[in-house]
Amino acid sequence: MFGLILFLLFVGVPAAEIAIFIVVGGEIGVWSTIALVILTAIAGSALIRRQGLRTLIRAQHTLSRSELPIEEAFDGICLVAAGALLLTPGFLTDTIGLLLLVPPLRAMIRGPILRRLQARMTVRGFGAPPPPPPPDDGPIIDGDFHEVDPRPNTDQGGPRLPGSGAT
Fold it and tell me: Is 24 left (phi over 0), alpha (psi -120 to 50) or beta?
């Protein structure tokens, strides 16, 4: 299944974009098609900047109430994806990117995804019991060590242990 998704992303989407370029270019002309692609990238960048700042402010307010900004984080991910799609030349990717910029559509997408994630996650609060200790791998020995030079010292009669009193 994952292989099919990757195939569609890397082969299917570019092939669809080329086909759409050919059709649109035949209808409105090559230069108008190029201008339209550039215009959508510029307009999308402006919209992303505005919505990104709003999302950041909403996240700061949510954090100031000591709540997790989950909705804002999801919106931020959608805005990053929209930016990448809008900067990618093509009408299909621009359409998907522009759809991700519509807040009601993001809310429709966000609901099911967050419910699915919450069903998979286990949330621990302050009153929850601590996690079980790691498995016992044997005794733990605490100690100090002193490094001994393994090379014989011919001047002093061989290696010495520190603190042995020998000079």
Answer: alpha
* Number of structural domains in the chain: 1
Return the half-sphere exposure (C-beta side, CA atoms, 13 A cut-off) of residue 5.
2
Position 80 in a domain: yes
Rounded Cα distance, 94 and 17, in Å? 10
Q: Which domain holds residue 81?
A: 17-120
Give tens-digit pLDDT for 61-82: 999 999 889 899 999 999 999 9
Q: Nearest CA to 55 among 40, 78, 75?
A: 75
In a domain, 153, yes or no: no
The helix (H) or strand (E) run that includes residue 22 is: helix 13-28
pTM over 0.85: no
Contact predicate 79/48, CB 8 Å: yes
| Gyration radius (Cα) of the chain, Å | 31
Mean of the per-residue pLDDT values for the chain? 83
